[in-house]
From TrEMBL:
Residues 12-145 form the Hemerythrin-like domain. This is Hemerythrin HHE cation binding domain-containing protein. The lineage of its organism: Bacteria, Bacillati, Bacillota, Bacilli, Bacillales. GO terms for cellular component: plasma membrane. InterPro entries: Hemerythrin-like. It comes from Brevibacillus borstelensis AK1.
Amino acid sequence: MNVVERGECATLLRYFRGEHDHLLQQLETLKKLLYSGSNWDAEKEEQIVALTADLVQNMLHHFTEEEEILFPLITQANLTLVHPVSAMKKEHERIRATLLQLQSETECCQKTKQSSHRLIALMREAWQLVLDHLSKENLMLIPMANQLLHENEREAVLKKVGRK
């Protein structure tokens, strides 16, 4: 294990990567459910509606944590990162909009009691956007935060997100 992977660094990495893994797992479950060949029945509808609502809530909460807690610390630690962090926020906005459209279309499908081509297209778009975004965070942003932030700042992040 290198220096970045020890102590609080490992905890910060573990927390955010764990959050990302959980969000991707929810998205994957929803994708499989939507892509399953079975008809749109009451059981499938209930699962899709509940999973979509939970995914949207979790993703929006996660983005809020990053934007209000982690991103400001990163940009304070290194002002040259203002533009990359701004780009990450723009990706958050696009993902938010797509997920909210997905949730809205899910509710429309619930009313009509059938899936739609738009729902599948939104699922595909959400999957790609989230996968690309979280990969960037896992490979670049979170390791960078570990290197830039002092131990007390990393501890503060973990306390604010309620994981320490």
